[in-house]
C-alpha cells in the first residue's frame, strides 16, 4: 500500500470564499507587519523632532512590541467567545485608530502611548487572521493558502525600512503612520461586507489566572531581552525582566496543564505535527527576525550605506521569499511539505554561511546571491509548517492553536534578536574592524538555522486519504 501514502495529486482549488478571506487577511496583516520595522529608520528624526534622547525614542518601538506581545494570548479566547469576525474588525479598527493618533502625536510620551494602542490591535490581527484562513481553506489546501498569507510576514521586515526611508526623506515622519489609515479603512469596509458573521460560543470563560501569568510573563521576558538588545546598563532591567518572565511562564505552564480550558492550550504539543512545526517556526522566525536586525546594520555600519540604499540592497531577500512561496504552495498540498521545509533550512544555512565571509568585504553581487538564498529558504518554511501544524488538529482547536504558534514566533524573534545584538556588541568591542565583527556574529543565525533541521526532519509525512481521520 506504499503507493497510497501520499495525498491526492491535485487538491481542490480554492473557492471564492476562501480566496476572499485570504485577500482580506493579507490586506489587514501587511500594515501591522510593516509597522514593526518602518519606524526603525526614523529614530534620529523623532529624537530631533521632540528634542528627546534616543533612549526615549527607543520606547516608540519597544512599547509597540510589548503591547503586541501582551495581547496575543487573548486571541484564542476572544475568537471562541465572540467569533473571529468581530475580533478581527475590532483589532483592525484599534490598529487603524492608533495609526491616526500616532500621526497626530504632539510629544514623545503621546507617540509612545499611541504606539502601545497600535500594538494592542496588531497583536490580535495576525493570529485571528491566520485562524480565519485555516478554517476557510481546510487542511488539504493549507499549503497554497499559507504561502499567500506568509507574504506579509516575509516581506514586511524587508520592505519596512525601504518604505520608511522614502516617507521620512520625501514627505514627513508622520506619514509612516498615516499611510496605514487608507489601508486600514479599506480592510474594515471589505471585512464587514465579505466575512461571514461567525458567532462565538458566548459563554466561553476567560482563564483569568492564565492571563495574569502569561501576558505579564511574555511582556517581562520581552522587556528583559530587548534591554539586552539595547545594551542597557541596568542589570536590574535585564535580570529582573528575564527572571520574572521565566518564573511567570513556568507557572503558567503548570497551570495550563491542570486547567480544562486554559488561555493557551499546551496539550496541542502532544500532536507530533503541531509540536515539530511550532519548533521549526520558533527557530526560523528567530533566525529571520534577528537577521532583520543584523543585515541592515551590517550595510549601514560596515559598508557605510544610507538607509534607503540599504533597504534597496536587501531586496534580493524579498524576491527569493516571494518566489519560493509562489512555487512551493502546491508542493505542500501534494504532500511534499517536509521536503520543502528541509530544503528551506538548507538554503537559510547556505545564505548565512555566505555572510560569515563579510570580513573580507565581498562584492554586492556575492551578498545579493546570499540574500536570495536566505529569502528562498524563508519562503520554503512558513507555509508547510503551518499546514503541518493545523492538519494535526480539529477545526475547533484552530483558534487557540494559532495563538500558541503566534506566541512561539514572537518569543523566538525577541530572544534571537537579543542574542545576536549582544554577540555583535561583544565582537565590536573586541575588534576594530566592523566587517570582522559582523562576520563572526553571522555564525549564530547559521547555527540556529541548522538547529531547525532537527524538528524539520521530524515533521510527519501526510497520511493517505484512506488513513486520515
Automatic annotation (TrEMBL):
The keyword Nucleotidyltransferase does not apply. It is found in: Cell membrane. Residues 21-464 form the Major facilitator superfamily (MFS) profile domain. It holds the Pfam family MFS_1. The chain crosses the membrane at residues 21-42, 57-75, 87-106, 112-133, 145-167, 173-196, 208-230, 236-257, 278-298, 310-328, 340-358, 364-390, 411-428, 440-459. It is a multi-pass membrane protein. Keywords: Cell membrane, Membrane, Transmembrane, Transmembrane helix, Transport. InterPro entries: EmrB-like (IPR004638), MFS (IPR011701), MFS_dom (IPR020846), MFS_trans_sf (IPR036259). Gene3D superfamilies: MFS general substrate transporter like domains, Multidrug resistance protein D. Belongs to the major facilitator superfamily. EmrB family. This is DHA2 family efflux MFS transporter permease subunit.
